[in-house]
Predict the structure.
Amino acid sequence: MRVAMFGYQTWGHRTLQALLDSRHEVVLVVTHPPSEHSYETIWSDSVEDLARSHGIAVHLAQRPDDALAARVREAAPDIVVANNWRTKLPREIFDAPPHGTLNLHDSLLPRFTGFSPVIWSLISGAAETGLTAHRMDDDLDTGDIVVQRAVPIGPRDTATELVQATIDLIPEVLTEALAAIENGTAEWTPQDLAQRTFFHKRSDLDSRIDWTWPAEEIDRLIRAQSDPYPDAWTHYRGERIGITRAHVSTCCYGGTPGRVFIHEGDGMAIVAGPSAHLGRGRALVVDEVRTADGRIVPAAEFFPHGGGYLTDRP
């Protein structure tokens, strides 16, 4: 089939490479210009560079417009394939090819529609994430599903590991979906939108640690902000610090959320939870800290003893 590919960052790059490795013909690549947004400067393999290195026509756009619609019509694709295209496409574009648009989304739809789905999946305590190939429709990530693959979320997995696992599924899922569509054997399953969960883009504020969360939830937030993502952060004695590694305590600790309490093993136990004053919950044991100047410091060195509080502002 003749394919127009819409995509950005490593997700789009891996999708384009899978198309180049297939027997399909890529007739147009549409991607966004480079961005300085903190979540768009990581996983930043260039779709544009890969396309140009193979002599494929490239159209750069921040959002769809008349010029983009015209390029798609001129390219006359049989299908559009999209992965990590960051703005909503109008029907005149996504429904123009005979086979419409196949979108790849890194979650098990209808759960975790929207942005940063792997990070939100980990933070929320989901048992699995994955990759879904679905038909694009008028809403965001709500179209009928043709192929879906799951990735289990382990008890110590990080977002970095899970993102890589879902990216690695792209060639398999895309190849299977395109074959079924081309052969006329695709079975399209409508989503149960009553089960839909919809998440917004992440920003710096979303990585701030709230010490009234249970320690188990804070631990997931920290693992969801693993390198190369910006650290989960807090303040200690006027300094903003990142928490790069932590775990849930062995025993229960009581007091006020955010209290720097006592060493447990090689880490420092921080009181946490909405009912911390009752002493029935676990603490978060901080193992490693990133200081304001970027140094990674063992918690026992950064916190030589208990005292003071971790807070959401200086």
